[in-house]
Predict the 3D structure of the following.
Amino acid sequence: MKAITFYLDFISPYAYLAFEQLPQALEGLSYQVEYRPVLFAGLLKHHGQLGPAEIAGKREWTYRQVLWLAHANGIPMQMPSAHPFNPLGLLRLALACGPNRFVCETLFRHVWRGGADAADAGRLQALQKDLAPARDPGSEDVKNELKQATQDAIARGLFGVPTLAVDDKLFWGFDSLPMLRAYLEGDRWFETQWPAVAQLPPGQGRVARP
């Protein structure tokens, strides 16, 4: 049985889609999943990147694409009333509860179903009451755990979410699920093509002016 670490942030629509699709994508295979919340903004900051929602044009495309992907895959999905939003309350609540599939499903659907404000204080309070976390989400212990999880993810090579880690391999994005399945099924492509890419030398860097 393979162990999969699913790195996620509830702010990511692609993480939501991958979470919902994972059981179907890996149907019939033997595996176990550990769900690990991390701060997507922390990954972006480390790598000096902007998120899709921070780039004009790309923001609108991202929202159209994820809604289409949800439609095409039969996954219920509505955009929250505002995006991006501050996901820290949700991430800390997940860690305080213990981020199993039920907890993560509850929090993902809080964001991506119904079209409400994902960061609304009253809704977060109701979620906390329903989930009854064993620890205080606002405690320094939980806050530090989230910081450490994000730093550990960066050290492992993560640059975005969702990322599914198996053995020494990272599979990034909703569209990597078929690739993940192929690896779990023992596709021999991974024996040659996966390591070969790492040997490819860089060519011309970014051109600053046309």
